[in-house]
Design a protein that fits this description.
Layout (H helix, E strand, L loop, with lengths): L3 E5 L3 H5 L7 E3 L6 H7 L3 E6 L3 H15 L4 E2 L8 E6 L4 H20 L4 E6 L5 H10 L5 E3 L7 H10 L4 E4 L7 E3 L10 E5 L1 E2 L10 H4 L4 E2 L2 H13 L4 E5 L16 H10 L4 E5 L8 H9 L6 E3 L7 H7 L5 H14 L4 E8 L6 H14 L3 E6 L17 H25 L4 E9 L6 E5 L5 E5 L8 E9 L3 E6 L3
Parallel strand pairs: 1-8, 2-9, 3-4, 3-5, 5-6, 6-7, 7-8, 10-13, 13-14, 15-16, 16-17, 20-22
Antiparallel strand pairs: 11-12, 18-19, 18-21, 19-20, 21-22
Helix pairs in contact: 9-10, 13-14
The protein binds 5'-deoxyadenosine and iron/sulfur cluster.
Length: 480
C-alpha cells in the first residue's frame, strides 16, 4: 500500500456541531516556485456531479488551477491533474462516482504522473474515505468542501512527497473565503453564492453534515460580484443558497433575502433567479420584490418533499400541507403568471399509500410547471437512515411512477399554455441532437428549440411557441 498522509479525516459528529461564529478570510495562498514550474502549461480535467453549489466549486477549482498557468481539457486521457467533484445526496449518485474512480485505474497505470483528486460532498463521509483509501489506492488527493481554499497547498505538499496519498477533509463548521480565483463555466449565465451550508437538518438529508453550518456572505461582497458580472455582459444571475430565505439571519444587520434580491435586481442584470426556497422561511416581502422587478424571473423552485403532514413531520420539514398550499395561493394571487417547480421524495421510511396519496393530492392542487422527483435513499449518519423501513423498493418504484404520471398532466398543461405565445428565450447553444437548431431557456427554465443563427448564443430573443413536447418546446424566432 502507498503511504497515506492524513491531515484531517471527516467526522459526521463534528459535522453536526454548529459553532455560533464564523470568519471571513481573503484568499492569499502563494504557491511554491517548484509547483508553478512543475504545473506550468500542464492540463487539468474536472468532472462535477450534483447541484449548483458543486458547479460553483468547480469554477473556483478551475480558477485556482488557471492561476498556476494550467489549461483545462475535456478528456481525462489528456490530463495531468484530474478532479472528480462528487455528490452525496443519493446513493445512485455515489455509485456512479465510484464507477468513474474505478475507471481511472487503467489510466493511472499507463500515466503514472497523473494526479487524481476526489472532492465534494461524498468525501465528507468517513465510510466513503475509508473505502477510497482501502480499495481505491490510485486516488492521490482527497479533500472536502471546506478545504477548497487548501487545494493548491495540498498540491504543493503532494509534489514534495510524490506517491504519498493525502486526505484533508475538515468537518468543522466552515468559514468563508472571499477573493478566490474563479473561471466560470458559462459566459452568459452565472451562479453567485449568497450563503453556504444548511442548518435545517431535514432528517433524510446529508447536506448539513457535508456542507456545514449555514453562513451568509456579506452583502457588499455579493453585490460586488454581481456588479462585475453585469459589467462583463452576463445575461443571467442565479443567487445560490441551500435555503436562500434565511439569508442574513447570521449577520449583525437588518439585511434579509428580500433586501438582497432587490439590490441585485437594481443592478440591471437582464435575468435574475434564486435557488433554493424553504417554504416556512419564505417571507411575503420576497413575493413583493419578485412582482416589482421585471428582471426577476417569474419562476419559483419551492421544494415540498411530501404532501403528508405526518411524513413532513418525520422529515423534520417545518410546515404542514395546508401552510404550503396557503403560501402557493398567496404567491399566485400576487404573481398570477408564476411558474412553480418542486422537489418530492417518494418512499420515506414506512410511508403508507394513504400518506403518498396526500402528496398526489397536493401536486394536483398546486399544478406545478415542472418537478424533480426522487426515491428516498438512506444516507448514513442521518436520523432517517436509522429507521426500520417496511415498504419494499418495488412498492416505492410503483408509487414513484404513479406520481410522475400525475405531475406530467400539469407539466403538459403548463407547456400547452405557452403555445402561440411569444416569450423571451436566453439562447444557450446548438441543440445536442441537431446542430442546426438552437436551444434556449424560458423564464420558467423550460427548454425551447428553434431555428436560428449561432451568433444568437448568449442573447435573449423572442420566440413564438409552436409545439409542445412536454419537457421541451419548439418555436420560431420572431424578428423585431
Ligand atoms: N433521498 C432522496 N432524495 C433526497 N434529497 C435530499 N436527500 C435525499 C435522500 N436522502 C432530494 C430532496 C432535495 C433534493 C436536492 O434532493 O428532494 O430537495
Ligand atoms: Fe437538505 Fe433540508 Fe437543508 Fe435542503 S433544507 S439542504 S433538504 S437539510
Amino acid at each position: 500500500m502507498r503511504k497515506l498522509n492524513i491531515i484531517e479525516y471527516p467526522n459526521i459528529d463534528k459535522g453536526r456541531i454548529r459553532l455560533k461564529s464564523f470568519c471571513t478570510y481573503n484568499y492569499s495562498y502563494v504557491p511554491s516556485d517548484d509547483l508553478l514550474l512543475k504545473l506550468k502549461n500542464k492540463k487539468y480535467f474536472i468532472k462535477t456531479h450534483g447541484c449548483q453549489a458543486n458547479i460553483r466549486d468547480e469554477e473556483t477549482l478551475s480558477g485556482l488551477l488557471n492561476s498556476l498557468n494550467m489549461e483545462r481539457v475535456e478528456t481525462k486521457e489528456e490530463a495531468d491533474i484530474a478532479i472528480i467533484n462528487t455528490c452525496a445526496v443519493r446513493e445512485n449518485a455515489e455509485d456512479k462516482v465510484l464507477g468513474e474512480i474505478g475507471e481511472f485505474k487503467n489510466l493511472k497505470a499507463k500515466k503514472k504522473d497523473l494526479i487524481l483528486c476526489i472532492c465534494g460532498c461524498m468525501v465528507g463521509q468517513p465510510h466513503i474515505v475509508n473505502k477510497l483509501t482501502d480499495t481505491y489506492e490510485h486516488v492521490d488527493i482527497i479533500f472536502g468542501t471546506h478545504n477548497i481554499q487548501d487545494f493548491v497547498r495540498l498540491l504543493d505538499i503532494y509534489i514534495k512527497n510524490p506517491g504519498t496519498r493525502l486526505v484533508d477533509v475538515s468537518s468543522k463548521s466552515g468559514d468563508i473565503y472571499e477573493d478566490m480565483p474563479s473561471l466560470r463555466v458559462n459566459k452568459f449565465k452565472a451562479f453567485v453564492n449568497i450563503s453556504y451550508g444548511c442548518d435545517k437538518f431535514c432528517t433524510y438529508c446529508i447536506v448539513p453534515y457535508t456542507r456545514g453550518k449555514e453562513r451568509s456572505r456579506d452583502i457588499k461582497d455579493i453585490l460586488k460580484e454581481c456588479s462585475e458580472l453585469v459589467k462583463q455582459g452576463y445575461q443571467e444571475i442565479t443567487l445560490l443558497g441551500q435555503n436562500v430565505d434565511s439569508y442574513g439571519k447570521d449577520l449583525n444587520s437588518n439585511v434579509d433575502f428580500a433586501y438582497l434580491l432587490e439590490e441585485v435586481a437594481k443592478l440591471g442584470i437582464p435575468r435574475l433567479r434564486f435557488l433554493t426556497s424553504y417554504p416556512s422561511d419564505f417571507k411575503d416581502n420576497v413575493i413583493d420584490v419578485m412582482a416589482k422587478y421585471p428582471n426577476i424571473m417569474k419562476y419559483l423552485h419551492l421544494p415540498v418533499q411530501s404532501g403528508s403532514d405526518s411524513i413532513l413531520k418525520k422529515m423534520g420539514r417545518r410546515y404542514t400541507k395546508e401552510q404550503y398550499l396557503d403560501l402557493v395561493k398567496k404567491i399566485k394571487e400576487k404573481i398570477p403568471e408564476i411558474a412553480i417547480s418542486t422537489d418530492i421524495i417518494v418512499g420515506f421510511p414506512n410511508e403508507t399509500y394513504e400518506e403518498f396519496l396526500e402528496t398526489v393530492d397536493l401536486v394536483k392542487q398546486v399544478g406545478y410547471a415542472s418537478a424533480f422527483t426522487f426515491i428516498y435513499s438512506p444516507r448514513k449518519g442521518t436520523p432517517a437512515a436509522r429507521l426500520k423501513d417496511d415498504v419494499s423498493y418495488e412498492t416505492k418504484v410503483k408509487r414513484f411512477k404513479e406520481l410522475v404520471e400525475v405531475l406530467e398532466v400539469d407539466v403538459n398543461k403548463y407547456a400547452n399554455s405557452l403555445i402561440d405565445k411569444v416569450i423571451p428565450v436566453l439562447v444557450e447553444g446548438p441543440s445536442k441532437k441537431d446542430p442546426n437548431i438552437l436551444t434556449g431557456v424560458s423564464e420558467a427554465n423550460k427548454i425551447i428549440h428553434f431555428v436560428g443563427d449561432k451568433s444568437l448564443i448568449g442573447k435573449i430573443v423572442n420566440v413564438k411557441i409552436t409545439k409542445n413536447h412536454v419537457y421541451s418546446l419548439v418555436g420560431e424566432m420572431i424578428n423585431e
